[in-house]
Amino acid sequence: MSPQAATPAYRRLSVEERRSQLLDAALSLFAHRAPEDVSLDDVAEAAGVSRPLVYRYFPGGKQQLYEAALHSAAEELRGCFDEPREGPLLPRLHRALDRYLTFVDGHDAGFSALLQGGSVVETSRTTAIVDGVRRAAADHIMRHLDVTDPGPRLRMTVRMWITAVEAASLIWLDEDKQPPMEELRDWLVDQFVAVLTVTATRDPQTATVLSTLSD
Amino acid sequence: MSPQAATPAYRRLSVEERRSQLLDAALSLFAHRAPEDVSLDDVAEAAGVSRPLVYRYFPGGKQQLYEAALHSAAEELRGCFDEPREGPLLPRLHRALDRYLTFVDGHDAGFSALLQGGSVVETSRTTAIVDGVRRAAADHIMRHLDVTDPGPRLRMTVRMWITAVEAASLIWLDEDKQPPMEELRDWLVDQFVAVLTVTATRDPQTATVLSTLSD
């Protein structure tokens, strides 16, 4: 089917709107199925458009669509950590984790597939996208902690905690979302303070950061 | 070259010995290069044997050799955590981490490639091997903690810590093995106690485990 054959309703959407409609459809499919189990046909059906139209927007096929959906999910995830630098620090972390866990909750299977890798369409490019989100999360935390030049110990502590949060999210999905989201959030915040406290005994920079946490 | 054309020195090794010689050669190559940068030629050269011989043992080629090397590394890693259940708990954890970090130190690039995935030869099978090691590590810890039926909070805490240790290892390799291995080991043990302490305030089982830690 040529693009001209599309119904008028199709043409009303701009290229950007159409693209974003297709990505939304793809994301909602990836949310509940592993990427290798989602076909372009499925995406076309979910978006209520023809398969050729999906190909027109993603001529690279499934891999391109998957990567675009991943980018879009990554953008959403980055947005979770985008918290104004105002007010006490720990409540900011609470709010960011609330948004993050809501995202995990809403994208369960797709989130697992995304992070656990091992999917047939995984490549070093998709790994790089996920790593970019991790790095962005670490940068956000450093900015909130008001640290412009984090030393190796503080940096490692923050990155370890981010990885632990990611692991917790996957386990949480695996365990039927137990404990409840609010408990998980508080637990993760407490763990953050606990690991910073451990590092603070070895690292003056982390000790300084820790002293500002309860401000 | 047919196997018969091999020099007499080749024939002196048993099938098992030969296989293990080839795996050692492969592991030492994977230790310093990403799997996709290692060819069967390289393995043959490193082991001082002919390429056809490598193919005879690994007819599936590179992917089969990589998986076999991965299995062998996984076995070695599992061995790190195989600590007798005698004496105080924290020194046991120290010893296990010493062995683990020595493994990481000796296999640096190969270890990163193994865990970070994103390699062209990565498949869900190799991911499953790595996950098996994580699970084995968690089981070892539970056995040392004398817990036969860990609840979700204790289980999640232990698995999060294992992931954090893994992340720390990768960051450590990335940061030119700073801080020194002994400091990293003590720091990881202290973090384990700290996160258990956080969980103990929410979970009676973890509180009981924590009270035995200093025994």
Structure description:
Two copies of one chain form a homodimer. By secondary structure, the first copy, chain A, is mainly alpha-helical. The first copy, chain A, has two domains: about 5-65, Arc Repressor Mutant, subunit A, CATH 1.10.10.60; about 75-215, Orthogonal Bundle (Tetracycline Repressor, domain 2), CATH 1.10.357. Helices cover about 75% and strands about 0% of the residues of chain A. Chain A is built from eleven helices and no strands. The longest helix of chain A is centred in the C-terminal third of the chain and has 23 residues, at about 150-175. The radius of gyration of chain A is 20 Å and the shape is elongated. At the A-B interface, helix 8, helix 9 and helix 10 of A face helix 8, helix 9 and helix 10 of B.
Jot down its keywords.
73% helix; 2 domains; mainly alpha; disordered N terminus; homodimer; Arc Repressor Mutant, subunit A; Tetracycline Repressor, domain 2; 215 residues; 0% strand; Homeodomain-like_sf (chains A, B); transcription (chains A, B); 11 helices; DNA-binding (chains A, B); transcription regulation (chains A, B)
